[in-house]
TrEMBL record, chain B:
GO terms for cellular component: nucleus. This is Replication protein A subunit. Residues 200-280 form the OB domain. InterPro entries: Euk_RPA1_DBD_C (IPR047192), NA-bd_OB-fold (IPR012340), NA-bd_OB_tRNA (IPR004365), Rep_factor-A_C (IPR013955), Rep_factor-A_N (IPR007199), REPA_OB_2 (IPR031657), Rfa1 (IPR004591). GO terms for biological process: DNA recombination; DNA repair; DNA replication. Keywords: DNA damage, DNA recombination, DNA repair, DNA replication, DNA-binding, Metal-binding, Nucleus, Zinc, Zinc-finger. Its main location: nucleus. The keyword Transport does not apply. Residues 7-105 form the Replication factor-A protein 1 N-terminal domain. It is found in: Nucleus.
Length: 116, 628
């Protein structure tokens, strides 16, 4: 009897990723984070991105092909300036980075308890 | 017993004997000195008072030292030892020259008047006076003139008389500068008579002219702040406006009195105060010379240009900062209300969001600051503007008010950041106007989907909303269901959209157009269920709005309905319309149905959700939550 297993990508709530920008990244070194970045350039194995607070974040891994202007990455912060990405999601060519940045700040201050 | 009173009829005695012979027996002449004032630099003059009559008098210069030393005092008594009475050349009066005198008493309590009865009560201050009740005192005495204390008669006096007696000898209020009693702004009210305040001008509006039924006028107002930080707005019209416009300068301190207070018009409230002040031509404004001018640092709360969306057509005024891209020449705009021409200038500013916005400056701002900006426009100056209104002209635009403040190249961190961004990056970047892509609401009278934003529960929890006249709100919600088996439409006249009836024979009859037509159109009239995070409600929708919601016209939907087959395309179409978010403009009114009052909600306008704008709105709401 063949049993077909269905693989689903469930949301991993056991290890939540904190919303970060360049400034907040250093608070989560070694931990799981997610960040929206604007792709500045990609060179073999990593992407240089501009964070929503106009800082720089290096993302290691392979971006989607082709990547859109804005990409969200989820992964582990391996330093205070870089993320080792596990998941990449194209977020399109135009997005309001200010809103996302405000979200990062709210999610790490007054409303942290709703996220982590 | 010392007689602390003038001699009775002393003045008459003097008048009767203008040039007494010093050797002769001179009667006792004691007078009270009133109105003692210096005449020239060496002599004093006064009014001699005996309780009944008064006489102008002069103390020659040799007696001046006695005045200065305090021996001869105003309200005091002197015994005149030698005098002469002269005529005043041009008048029929006489004046007395006192050549020799001696002090009898220092200042009495008050001007002596015969006939005034004293009471031995605590009201009178020391020294207790034994005042003769009458000039014609019945002297029950022997010949040597001993005065017995006459019977005191109790006489009631009015409060005013008592106060006068008490204050009659008080020094008249000195010059304002020395005895100013300043009232705190917080203590002012319309019922308090005279007050004086010491305030700084913390904001000065421009002079506006107006025309109404009574004619033309001009007005301006200032914001006044006192030491405690209380603020009040003061308005001046016409004469007063002209009188004080140049006098009031931003940052300077003034003593103000003789203004009037009234309850503030909450509609135009600019400062936190229940009252507002009006100054007229009789009001007094005096600059406080010892106070340094201090222009309090204007507090700005900048909204980035791209975040202005939620403020469109709202009541809240915003502050903006940007790099000047262009300055228009002065335009003359005719005001509809009074046909008056006012100067206007449009400036375009940009910020780091790479968005630009046009700010309209009016009147003084257009001519003064506007000109200044035009002159330095090629330097790309930074301009900070406080309190502008956000309108929907050309999508989004800003307009200055009389209370707006414009600061050119302010020395603040935001300005410096902006300038360095512009110099390094912004200068070359393409910019887009923040207004493009923003559609002003047409049907709902120009109101944006962000004004009067509520949750559905706010409407459904309040059954009395819309009782007198319809109330309007904006909501963001999802269509949760559309019943497929309701009356979706009515048959409408192709010309006037009114309901038509089936004509005898064929076709349709329109009562309004008074004609028959073979064909009619179908126009939506349906009810949809809308839900949001707070609850749900049934809302009526008419043709245009329903078309937006369903995604096709009523005629098209009817075709789908009559389609037979497995695919129930009609129901599918309706299902596809559900769980789509929309921004709605809703009107709420009351209907009576079976003797029951019911709320009737109607969609007036539909707009797609702009998620970026909506997020900004939510961020604003979150920060408001935090602030309260």
């Amino acid at each position: 009897m063949l049993v077909y297993g269905k693989t689903t990508r469930d949301m991993d709530t056991s290890n939540p990723a904190a919303f970060v920008n360049a400034d907040l990244l250093r608070l989560y070194v070694g931990k799981r984070v997610r960040a929206l970045i604007q792709v500045v350039r990609s060179d073999g194995g990593s992407v240089v991105g501009k964070s929503t607070d106009d800082g720089q974040i290096i993302v290691k891994g392979n971006p989607p092909v082709p990547p859109t202007n804005f990409v969200e990455v989820i992964g582990v912060a391996d330093s205070d300036k870089s993320i080792r990405a596990e998941i990449w999601t194209n977020f399109g060519d135009a997005i309001d980075t200010h809103n996302y940045n405000q979200l990062c700040q709210l999610a790490n201050s007054d409303f942290k308890h709703l996220f982590i | 017993m010392t007689m602390k009173a003038p001699s009775p009829d002393a003045i008459s005695t003097i008048m009767a004997n203008p040039s007494p012979d010093t050797t002769a027996d001179m009667p006792e002449i004691v007078v009270q000195i009133l109105d003692l004032t210096p005449k020239g630099s060496s002599r004093y003059m006064f009014t001699a008072n005996d309780g009944k009559k008064k006489l102008k008098a002069i103390l020659p210069s040799q007696l001046t030292p006695q005045v200065i030393s305090g021996e001869i005092q105003n309200l005091g008594l002197i015994r005149i030892l030698d005098y002469s009475l002269n005529d005043i050349p041009s008048k029929s009066e006489k004046y007395l020259i006192v050549t020799k005198c001696e002090t009898v008493s220092p200042a009495l309590e008050m001007e002596f008047k015969s006939g005034v009865k004293s009471e031995e009560t605590g009201i009178l201050l020391k020294p207790k006076q034994e005042i003769e009740i009458n000039s014609e005192v019945k002297r029950e005495s022997s010949g040597n003139g001993i005065m017995l204390k006459p019977k005191q008669e109790m006489v009631t006096k009015s409060a005013a008389q008592i106060i006068h007696e008490q204050h009659g000898n008080m020094v008249p209020p000195a010059r304002m500068a020395m005895t100013r009693r300043v009232h705190p702004l917080v203590s002012l009210n319309p019922y308090q008579g005279s007050w004086m305040i010491k305030v700084r001008v913390t904001n000065k509006g421009t002079m506006r002219t107006y025309r109404n039924a009574r004619g033309e006028g001009c007005v301006f107002n200032v914001e006044l702040t006192d030491e405690d930080g209380t603020q009040i707005q003061a308005t001046m019209f016409n004469e007063a406006a002209r009188k004080f416009y140049d006098k009031f300068q931003l940052g300077k301190v003034y003593y103000i009195s003789k203004g009037t207070l009234k309850v503030a018009n909450k509609q135009f409230k600019t400062v936190q105060n229940d009252y507002e002040m009006t100054l007229n031509e009789n009001s007094e404004v005096e600059e406080a010379s010892n106070e340094a001018a201090f222009v309090p640092e204007t507090k700005f709360n900048f909204v980035p240009i791209e975040m202005l969306g939620p403020y469109v057509n709202g009541k809240e005024l915003v502050d903006v900062i940007g790099v000047v891209q262009s300055v228009s020449p002065t335009m003359s705009i005719r005001r509809k209300s009074n046909n008056e021409n006012i100067p206007k200038r449009d400036i375009t500013i940009a910020d780091e969001s790479k968005k630009t916005v046009v700010v309209s400056l009016w009147n003084d701002l257009a001519t003064n600051v506007g000109q200044e900006l035009l002159d330095i426009a090629d330097q790309s100056p930074v301009v900070a503007i406080k309190s502008v209104k956000v309108g929907d002209f050309q999508g989004l635009s800003l307009s200055a008010l009389s209370r707006s403040m414009v600061v050119v190249n302010p020395d603040t961190p935001e300005a410096n950041k902006l300038k360095s961004w512009y110099d390094s990056e912004g200068k070359g970047s393409p910019m887009a106007s923040v207004g493009t892509g923003m559609s002003p609401s047409t049907r709902s009278g120009g109101r944006s989907m962000y004004s009067d934003r509520v949750f559905l529960s706010h409407i459904t929890d309040n059954p009395s909303l819309g009782e007198d006249k319809p109330a309007f709100f904006s909501i963001r919600g999802y269509i949760s269901s559309i019943k497929p088996d309701q009356t979706m439409w009515y048959r409408a006249c192709k010309t006037c959209n009114k309901k038509v009836t089936e004509a005898i024979g064929s076709g349709y009859w329109c009562e309004g157009c008074q004609k028959n037509d073979e064909e009619c159109s179908l126009r939506y009239i349906l009810v949809v269920r809308v839900s949001d995070a707070s609850g749900e409600a049934y809302i009526s929708a008419f043709n245009e709005e329903a078309e937006s919601i369903i995604g096709c016209s009523a005629d098209e939907l009817d075709k789908l309905r009559s389609q037979l087959g497995e695919e129930n395309s009609y129901e599918m179409k309706l299902k596809e319309a559900t769980w789509v978010p929309h921004l709605f403009r809703i009107s709420v009114s009351q209907n009576e149905y079976n003797n029951e009052k019911r709320q009737r909600l109607t969609v007036r306008a539909v707009a797609p959700v702009d998620f970026a704008a909506e997020s900004k709105f939510l961020l604003e709401e979150i920060s408001k939550m935090k602030a309260s």
